Description:
This protein is of the alpha/beta class. It is built from 15 helices and 17 strands.
Amino acid sequence: MKTSSLYIHxxxxxxxxxxCDFCKVFYQEKQVDDYLAVLKKELTSLNxxxxxxxxxxxxxTPTSLNDEQLEWLxxxxxxxxxxxxxxxxxxxNPETLDYYKLGILKRGGVTRLSIGVETFxxxxxxxxxxxxxxxxxxRIVRYGHQLGFDNISIDLMYGLPDQTLDDVENDLKIIxxxxxxxxxxxxxxxxxxxxLKNQNYQPLDEEAEADINKLIDxxxxxxxxxxxxxxxxxxxxxxxxxxxxxxQYDNYYGVGLGSSGKVDDCLxxxxxxLNAYLRFQDITNKITNSKEETMFNxxxxxxxxxxGLDLNEFKNRYGSKVTDVYQEAIxxxxxLKTLVIEDGYLRCTNDSIKLLNTILLDFIK
Length: 365
């Protein structure tokens, strides 16, 4: 299977958010310079010869880099962008962007902005140690439009400390007023070693989460957003192509500190040790999965999609029908009506997709 997607991790942040467990370090100018030099070296070592369809610059906060470093990063990815590249995404925090930086990104080939917003309530933002405010978000979206970005996504969260249903309603109203094409709307998950987990913050109960989920689904649908994955909504034609590669369990390269890649049955995990990465030593660990593990991972990722798992694609990759490999589990959930087979796809229902983790327990062999 060809590898047509590339993920690049930029771990640097100006500040650390209270809920974040991603691979990140505080920004230091000299360290970033050294990191970009190694990043270029690692990319070159991959000997990428096939045209890439998607490139994703994630973090951390890639836009925490200064103007010169951002120009350098754009130069590093330039050789991998061609007429066959369909999408180049960068993650951004509003306070690290301005009109000039957006211009650097536009000239550098970025086609899609993914802006970390979390909420438009300025008080709630302070509670999770975010440094921007709602006006900055609106300004960055406006600048993006002025510079010709026609694919803008925002990330939002619910279940934040002291957040009410009215707060969520207000966030949804503001979404309606923005000309954006994509929304990722996540429930706060308390990860180990994060500030909120250490503060013993208690997340939403299942009933409250279900009510908020239904509200978000309904309101975004009325705005013309189509739900295509558990937490992702897009205007028609603006689904995240890079993330679809993950969910369809396609191959992808991963470069940079803490990143991961997948080539067929091989998972490539990067070390989170920045000093080791800067020395370009022992930066990756390769894990070869069994066919059974690869098939389960494919099933698990694809059932996150509203359209579900492509039955023909599964058979073509593994030489077996998914209904034969997981006959007992599939029959059980077809009977329970938590899974359906329609139009060549195995998928969850609108109600059961939020129970996916429980459903998948029956597929573990």
